[in-house]
């Protein structure tokens, strides 16, 4: 469940990320009434199994079964909640046309929300890993080893979001950042799932990596996430 918005006096439009049909919008009738049979199952972060009936303009949700109640745990911790909100917004922005399959993005989001809800890793690390992997699935994989422009093997010292990652000395562009080697190693680990090295990183590397990941995301989305400014790092 990605997002909800009010419709009329008692209904809501629910934006979903589904395994087989990608991003969808559907109407949950009467869900805002206290007597609603859906209860709190149609809220952001909830992992549910739905039955949907085809409607004239929007499909209608007719049945809901909870698979994983991520919302209860995620909503109780501000750091976790703000990280999760940015994940939901990213997934909605990166998934293309409504109704198009997005299995990899779906599985990635479910896995990230499960990690958040179980406190498997630091929320900030989970978020940055999700952002990098989600961009990669969408076709915007950053390069942290070879030069993103000429392919020369690294390590390299310059990072440029518009060019796709690390740049060698010959390809370096004005305005490129010069992250510390530990920061580059952390971002590479977050992309590949090297959690042992990610957890061993220090606060400075994490702060620098978060700023570069946000810049990379903003470049490829063409505008920043509204929710990212509220993330408690």
Task: Give the topology.
Blueprint: E1 3-7, E2 11-18, E3 22-28, E4 47-53, E5 59-68, H1 70-74, H2 78-94, H3 103-117, H4 123-137, E6 158-160, E7 165-167, H5 181-192, H6 195-199, H7 203-221
Helix pairs in contact: 2-3, 2-4, 3-4, 4-5, 4-7, 5-7
Describe the structure.
The strands form 2 sheets. The chain has a 5-stranded mixed beta sheet. 39% of the residues are buried. The mean pLDDT is 93. It folds into 2 domains: 66 residues, OB fold (Dihydrolipoamide Acetyltransferase, E2P), CATH 2.40.50.140; 159 residues, Recombination protein O, C-terminal domain (de novo design (two linked rop proteins), Up-down Bundle), CATH 1.20.1440. By secondary structure, the chain is of the alpha+beta class. It has 7 helices and 7 strands.
CATH class category name of the largest domain: Mainly Alpha
Q: What percentage of the residues does DSSP assign to strands (E)?
A: 15-25%
Helix content: 25-40%
Number of helices: 7
Average pLDDT: 93
- What structural class is derived from the secondary structure elements? alpha+beta
Query: Which descriptor suits the 3D outline?
Result: elongated
For the record, give the distance between the C-alpha atoms at the N and C termini, rounded to a whole number: 24 Å
- Gyration radius from CA atoms, angstroms: 19 Å
CATH architecture of the largest domain: Up-down Bundle
Number of folding domains?
Answer: 2
């Amino acid at each position: 469940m990605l997002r909800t918005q009010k419709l009329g006096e008692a209904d809501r439009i629910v934006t979903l990320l589904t395994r087989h049909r990608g991003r969808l919008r559907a109407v949950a009738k009467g869900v805002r009434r206290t007597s609603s049979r859906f209860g709190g199952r149609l809220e952001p972060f909830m992992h549910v199994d739905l039955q949907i009936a085809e409607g004239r303009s929007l499909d209608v949700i007719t049945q809901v079964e909870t698979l994983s109640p991520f919302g209860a745990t995620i909503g109780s911790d501000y750091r976790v909640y703000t990280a999760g909100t940015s994940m939901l917004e990213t997934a909605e922005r990166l998934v293309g046309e409504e109704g198009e399959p997005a299995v990899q993005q779906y599985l990635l989001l479910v896995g990230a929300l499960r990690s958040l809800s179980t406190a498997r890793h630091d929320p900030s690390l989970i978020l940055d890993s999700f952002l990098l992997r989600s961009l990669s699935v969408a076709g915007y994989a950053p390069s942290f080893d070879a030069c993103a422009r000429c392919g020369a093997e690294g390590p390299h010292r310059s990072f440029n979001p518009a060019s796709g990652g690390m740049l060698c000395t010959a390809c370096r562009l004005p305005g490129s950042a010069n992250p510390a080697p530990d920061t580059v190693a952390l971002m590479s680990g977050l992309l590949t799932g090297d959690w042992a090295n990610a957890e061993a990183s220090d606060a400075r590397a994490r702060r620098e990596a978060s700023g570069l990941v946000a810049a990379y995301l903003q470049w490829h989305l063409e505008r920043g996430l509204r929710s990212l400014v509220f993330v408690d790092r």
